[in-house]
Amino acid sequence: GKSLLFVGDLIKGVYPASPSSWLFVAIGILATMYMQSDPSMGLITKIQQHLPLRVHNDESVQRIVGVVTLLWLSLILALRFCLKLLLSYHQWMFEKHGRMSNTTKVWVPLVRLLSSRKPLLYSYQSSLPHLPVPAIQDTVSRYLESVRPLLTDPEFKRMSDLANEFESNLGNRLQRYLKLKALWATNYVSDWWEEYVYLRSRGPIMVNSNYYGMDFLYVTPTSVQAARAGNTITALLLYRRKVNREELKPCVCVFCERMFNTTRTPGVETDVLQHWLDSEFVAVYHRGRYFRLWVYRAGRLLSPREIEDQIQRILDDASPPLPGEEKLGALTAGDRIPWAQMRKQYFSSGVNKRSLDIIERAAFFVTLDDEEQGMRGDDPEGNLDRYAKSLLHGKCYDRWFDKSFSVVIYKNGKSGLNAEHSWADAPTVAHLWEYTLATDAFQLGYTEDGHCKGDVEPSLPQPQRLVWNIPAEAQVSSSLAVAQALADDVDCHVFPFREFGKGRIKKCRVSPDAFIQISLQLAYYRDRGGFCLTYEASMTRLFREGRTETVRSCSNESCAFITALEKEECRRLFQLASERHQNLYRMAMTGAGIDRHLFCLYVVSKYLGVESPFLKEVLSEPWRLSTSQTPVQQMNLFDLKNHPDFISLGGGFGPVADDGYGVSYIIVGEDMVNFHVSSKYSCSQTVSNNHFIRQAMMSYIQGMAIVPRKGRMYAFAHFHFLFNHQLFIVNTHSSKIFFFFFF
């Protein structure tokens, strides 16, 4: 363990060089000393003046070792600086396919050369550039352009006056403070974003913040609940091992070290993320009881069959819940302040504290659900919707929403997860879940009767039942009532769009993401009769500790196209709208977004105690259409050609605005897109299952909007949609795009 960590830290610390390069530097210096050459421009000569040509004593050896090490460290810093400069170049992303600039042609081999060594998970962090602070006039200008199609002329003039007043006065003062922060902060956005957007929110995190991931659409590898739990838990722990050893490719995320052994603890003013270095057990919930399940025995990870047997013991346990135990998890689903007060009053000492510590220190949380879910029965569409709602909120007390993620294993073997949002974003969890599903189905596998494989040690101790002493007055009914009202109001709809997928869209020389985003805007326009502020999440992983930026997908070009589409005058406008969307996405990924900059300026204004009418209005604008693409990051794990039924359903989230929609989608293979739509029943203007998305998608592909046009495919379209949210180098040759994975 410790030796592996030391080796990993050493390899990571010297990247892009290698530990063995010290020996080459030493050999080079000794060779120059004996050959009496001086490629070091005088440095070796100075060494020779103080050291004999033949080394006879320990002091001389130490001095040579010191000089070699100093030169070696200087070489490492120089290589790292060069790599950072190269990674700061983003112009390649904006170039059209087949029109690579000379600068990019030089840049590609240089990056390949400096990143040719196989990196560990965090090897690139010290070489990534810091997120730049955009010029305030650029951000204000982009903001006004983004809201122009949403405002009338008088409204736009008023907003322009507010923006110009802000830019010329208070904005410059706030910008200076923000640039000061950017000089010493690793990322000027991420810490404030985590604290103020997530941890300081005092409302329920269930539905409002947490999100879910689903199982395979058509296939359930086994119908044995305990067996599915055994393989799933094993796969998750194998992934944790890869994280600890940094064996994952660096494309995953810098925040995945907080994926396991992590919980969000409530506070009156702000919550806190707590992370432990390791945990040898998981917390399990079944029919109102909590258990500690040890998954290691004398340092050995239990076999899948051993974990299955332990899970079966929990399923066979007929003991009733203790008073107050069954619905205890509702505390994590309701408002944060009552949970913080309850935690301090009743869970700060004694058996309650010990049991709560076990849940919070567990590697992750497991719910053995007594319901059956999935696309099944006489109403597969309705069952998919109920499956989504179950993963999003369950019964409001049978998940532990504070854990970094909770795995749900249903009675019929279907699985899923619910993830807390503050510690990382959805692509990180999606990477974990892809690995888990693929390892479960294709690597670990099951016996013919649906049980896990592996041997069983008969002397394993029973899972430990957690003990609680909850006073009668410490009822969780108020938190449960808040959570239940929120859960009952959520309208979820999941539908696989099978008519076509990215394969047919790309033949039309159009970016699949732009196609879907404009389809969503058309669907909203037909549903509500107008346009709205549209949020699309973009990753900023090109920068150190980058998380997300907003792509304001509703643009002048997309609105012009949709208006023309209704009049059947749209082909040229669709192309312009698609290209505009791609450009907005590129700008967000390269640090030229709008919303994170304005958010940080608002935080600075709060620290200084000054009010900005412009910033206050901007940050209060509702995102009535909040969208996100769930990336398929590890297509190599899924052989869709030989196993076409093993396709992922993706995941989803709740609506951001009370009168809006939350839309998540996953582009699966070449011929399918899965959509997850959420809204609230309490809003009479929103209906998740309204068929407008399907109709909008079909409107385009039927020839109203898209005509193949030669030479209009962007390299970035391939970059984003084939390998979404990962960093690749693009090289164009013979009208093909090759991807050299390095980060």
Automatic annotation (TrEMBL):
Q: What's the chief localization of this chain?
A: mitochondrion
Annotated compartments:
Mitochondrion outer membrane
Q: Which Gene3D superfamilies does the entry link to?
A: Chloramphenicol acetyltransferase-like domain, Choline/Carnitine o-acyltransferase, domain 2
Biological pathway: Lipid metabolism; fatty acid beta-oxidation
- Residue intervals passing through the bilayer: 20-37, 64-87
The way this protein sits in the membrane is described as: Multi-pass membrane protein
Molecular-function GO term, any one: carnitine O-palmitoyltransferase activity
Highest taxon of the lineage:
Eukaryota
Q: Which PROSITE patterns match?
A: ACYLTRANSF_C_1, ACYLTRANSF_C_2
Q: Name one GO biological process term.
A: long-chain fatty acid transport
Q: Which residues form the Choline/carnitine acyltransferase domain?
A: 131-688
Q: Which GO terms describe its cellular component?
A: mitochondrial outer membrane
Q: Which PANTHER family match?
A: CARNITINE O-ACYLTRANSFERASE, CARNITINE O-PALMITOYLTRANSFERASE
**The name this protein goes by in its record:** carnitine O-palmitoyltransferase
